[in-house]
Amino acid sequence: MAGYIIGQIKELNNTDAFGAYQGAAGPIVAQYGGKLVVNSTKIDARDGGWSPVGMVVLEFESVEQARKFYNSPEYQAVIGQRFDSADSALIIVDGD
Question: How many CB atoms lie within 10 A of CB 15?
C-alpha cells in the first residue's frame, strides 16, 4: 500500500533558499521512487485553525519507502535547508 509524505509550510522565511532546497530535494524524492502529487500555495483553509501557506504531498510505493527517503543520507544532507528557510512540518502517512 502507498505511503505518503505530507508537508506544510507555515511561514516562508527565505524564498530563494527554499527554492534551492526544493531543487536539491526533488531528485532525491525521485531516487527513492517518490512522486510529487501536490505542491501548492493555493490553499483554502476552512476550519480547525490550520492555515499553512504551502502544502506538498509525495507518494511512495509504501510507507517503508517513504521512511527510507526521509531517513536517507541524501535527504538528511539537505533537510537543514528546509529548516533554515521555512517554518515547516512533515508527517508520514500509511495509505493502508
Answer: 10
What does the pLDDT read at residue 40? 96
Number of structural domains (the chain) is 1
pTM of the model: 0.94
Domain span at 23:
3-94
Q: What's the CATH code of the domain at 32?
A: 3.30.70.100
Would you tell me how many other CB atoms lie within 10 Å of the CB of residue 53? 15
Residue 63 has pLDDT above 90, yes or no: yes
For residue 96, count CB atoms less than 10 angstroms from its CB and return exposed for 0-12, middle for 13-18, buried for 19 or more.
exposed
Q: Which residues are within 8 A (CB) of 42 and not within 5 positions of it... i.e. 6 or more apart?
A: none
